[in-house]
Prior knowledge:
- By secondary structure, the protein is α/β, with parallel strands linked by helices.
- It folds into 2 domains: 16-119, NAD(P)-binding Rossmann-like Domain (Rossmann fold, 3-Layer(aba) Sandwich), CATH 3.40.50; 157-216.
- It contains 7 helices and 7 strands, in the order βαβαββαβββαααα.
- The strands form 2 sheets. Strands 3-2-1-4-5 form a 5-stranded parallel sheet, sandwiched between helices. Strands 6-7 form a two-stranded antiparallel ribbon.
- The mean pLDDT is 93.
Amino acid sequence: MKTNKISKFYPILIDLQKFPCLVIGGGQVALRKVQSLILYNVKITVLSPKICKSLKELIKANKIKIILKPYSKEYIKNYKIIFCATDNPKISEQVHNDCEQQNILLNVADVPNLCDFILPAVVKRKNLTISVSSQGRAPFFAKEIRKKLDHIFPSYYEDIIDLAGNFRSILMNSKKYNSPKIKETAFIKFFMIDWKKVLNTEGKKKANEYMLYLLNDL
């Protein structure tokens, strides 16, 4: 088991489509891990002798694979990232020891001192991702902050991020805007527009026209 040394978890966004994940456990905690991973098109296998009804439905829908067996270290060798979501502390510690020996990254639900990485509370608006973490010290408080952010960043931020992404793409890929000064001016002008008002009153198509107008006016 890991020592009591305080861990400092580095915040990172990773493309898990390149790394199939194993989720150990078949209950509600495992289900929540699986549901969050599905949002990112991850290849998921669940390892557990028993699974809840909702996980069975995901299997029928071909969203996940299942190994209906008790935990054994033979099942982890082909994975680089593992989520342990069992309510058995002995299994959690065994998984930790086995992963440590094989240099596999591990997250153990609600046990930070057994984790190589932890999961932040997340607000997601399509391509906008805002995460909050307490470094595993007070996850309940991080979740409360997430709830506040949920109200601060309503659904229309999805469209604003799309507009901003298209704006930047054109700006960075056109020789017309090579000057750093022009780029700086363009970003300032972008932030001067009340995109919420434009989207709510005139729609996304008109907002896109405004975005192109800003670029043409540079």
